[in-house]
Amino acid sequence: MNAARERLAEQGEWRRLPLIGDARLRWLMVIGAVLYLVLALSTISVNWDRVAEGMSRGLNFLAAFTQPDFISRRGDIVNGLLESLTMTLTSTVIGVALAIPVGLGAARNISPLPVYLLCRGIITVSRTFQEVIIAILFVVMFGFGPLAGMITLAFATIGFMAKLLAEDIEDLDWRQVEAVRATGASWLQTMNHAVQPQVMPRLIGLSMYRLDINFRESAVIGIVGAGGIGATLNTSISRYEYDTSAAILLIIIGIVLLSEYSSSHVRRWTQ
Amino acid sequence: MPVSTNEQGEPIWRLRTSRAQWLGYLAWLAGISLFLLCWKLISDNTMWVFVEDAGRQGSDLISRMLPPQWSYAHRLWQPMWDTLNIATLGTLLGIAMAFPVAFLAARNTSPHPLVRSAALVVIVSSRSINSLIWAMLLVTILGPGVLAGIIAIALRSIGFVGKLLYEAIEEIHPTPVEAINATGASRMQVMSYAVLPQVMPAFAGISVYRWDINIRESTVLGLVGAGGIGLQLNAAINSLAWNQVSVIFLMIFVTVLASEWVSARVRRAII
After folding, report:
1. What region holds the ABC transmembrane type-1 domain (chain B) (predicted)?
2. Is A51 on the interface with B (CB under 8 A)?
3. Under the phi-then-psi rule, with left for phi > 0, alpha for psi from -120 to 50, and beta for the rest, what region is B55?
């Protein structure tokens, strides 16, 4: 096949290399993709009358972005934002603190097999379910309000941070660990002087990133009653008060921008 | 070098200067105060009566969930198929839109700085708003159904794929670009023969990764009416049929794990 390409190229007919080498596999994938698309699109039913009806509402919504209304629901917005921000901060702190032992346990090179399996299990459960699903359960257990939201976000943070921390520990420089161990250091001292310095910059960077994610998530778990700005947003959308929803969305985008900007600074400073 | 002297006038090496030490203490104090303040805000908004009850509520919930009502599972195949379609079609639509945006946003391929900042605004606003919020908006505009879910997933994916892809484009090797330029190629030809082959593996990897995340996100879109298994979940929770909820949870768990496995395999094959 390559020989054929080269022969053609010598005659001045150059063709670029295909993305997938095997021609049969390539065609099989194309046919499979077309078949799936036909099947999938045929099962989607769209009520076009409803869509046409909704278009004017869509235009209203876009128009609302040109004149967002921060004033008339100011109290609700400020309360929701305060709840979201406090939830974000506490859940990140608690989540990261709990993720460190789980992450240590889930690193194959420093923990025994039973601990490893247990910690990997915790990580898998926490990562598989979307935050909103976890929030539903915690709202049932702890009642409505920001506490349920905080526990949800902390739980989700454990899975995220522990997985990345464990991967980081698994490819750390083992010679430093050996050097510290050779001095007769205890397990705790090895962790503190050989492992921690190597993973700390990444841990701080990831915590900042998770802070950002937690804020974004705190804007949606309010939909199921776990507090935060999401409840305000949900109410404003279902009451068609698009100017208020536009204001809330703009605030969310602003805060995310701000935190992204500052976290990139922190990351540059730690590395 | 941070050195202090003891009573005999001998220098003692220390890790930090006194100034750095005090600044460190101050930072910790500020951080802990902020955390406690946030905690107080949350605790004021919490009904502690419900929290004291949490253990009993939790065990009650588990006892209602077990045993799962397996006969309910056969009614879940259709919603599960919808969920997979939402994730897959949404990802396809999203990457189709993210592809040009990423080229406009990358410093080395963007036609004009103004275009670049406009593309960056698109990426940031798409990233800041969770797919569930997009779904809430689209359900009021397009009406409930799978279509709203697909578009919500697509809109959220633009930011994610766009950001990672434009970073990949900015990191390409400049020599192939120069080489193609030297043959007198047009702008589009340089894109297609020098830039595209270099970012194609990254692009495929990012898309598959986002597909895997989208499967997880699309399981909850039904909570706001955007189709998929979330609709069934919402109905089961509202009717307090917890033994059906546990079947749905298991189904989501297996699907998400499978999609994660597939995406990890594909990414390893590509890179």
Report:
1. 80-263
2. yes
3. alpha
Task: Decide: A135 and A221 in contact? Cβ < 8 Å.
Answer: yes
Cβ atoms of B253 and A127 closer than 8 Å: no
The residue of chain B with its CA nearest to that of A221 is: B132
- How far is CA A248 from each of CA A199, A239, B23, B63, rounded to the nearest angstrom? 37, 14, 37, 40
User: Rounded mean pLDDT of chain B?
Assistant: 86
CA-based nearest distance A104→chain B, Å? 23
B78-270, what's its fold?
MetI-like fold (1.10.3720)
If you search the block for the tokens 């023969």, which residue do you land on? B193
Does residue A158 have a pLDDT over 90?
yes
Nearest-CA distance B141 → chain A (Å): 5
Closest A-chain CA to B78: A43
Q: For chain B, say whether A15 makes contact (Cβ under 8 Å).
A: no
Closest CA to A226 of A164, A166, A129, A152: A152
**A78-91 pLDDT tens trace:** 888 888 899 899 99
Residue B154 has pLDDT above 70, yes or no: yes
Per residue in A237-252, pLDDT (tens digit) is 888 888 888 888 888 8
Residue A43 contacts residue B81 (beta carbons within 8 Å): yes
Task: Nearest by CB to B132, from A50, A132, A249: name it.
Answer: A132
Measured in angstroms, the CA of A173 and the nearest CA of chain B are apart by: 23
Contacts of B42 in chain A (CB under 8 A): 83, 86-87, 90, 146-147, 150
Average pLDDT over residues A222-231: 83
Q: Which residue of B has its CA nearest to A234?
A: B136
Percent of chain B at pLDDT above 90?
20
What residues form DSSP beta bridges with B5?
A: B11
Q: At A153, is the pLDDT very low, low, confident or very high (cuts 50, 70, 90)?
A: very high
Residues in chain B within 8 Å Cβ distance of A223? 132, 136, 223-224
Which CATH code, of 2.130.10.120, 1.10.3720.10, 3.40.50.20, 2.40.30.10, is assigned to A72-270? 1.10.3720.10
Residue range(s) of every CATH 1.10.3720.10 domain in chain A: 72-270
Per 3-state DSSP, chain A is made up of helix, strand and coil in percentages (nearest 5) of: 80, 0, 20
Q: Whole-model pTM?
A: 0.84
Domain spans in chain B, listed from the N-terminal domain onward: 3-43, 78-270
A130: tokens are 């979307």
> pLDDT by residue (tens digit) across B189-207?
888 888 888 888 888 889 9
Q: Which residue has the higher pLDDT, A17 or A252?
A: A252
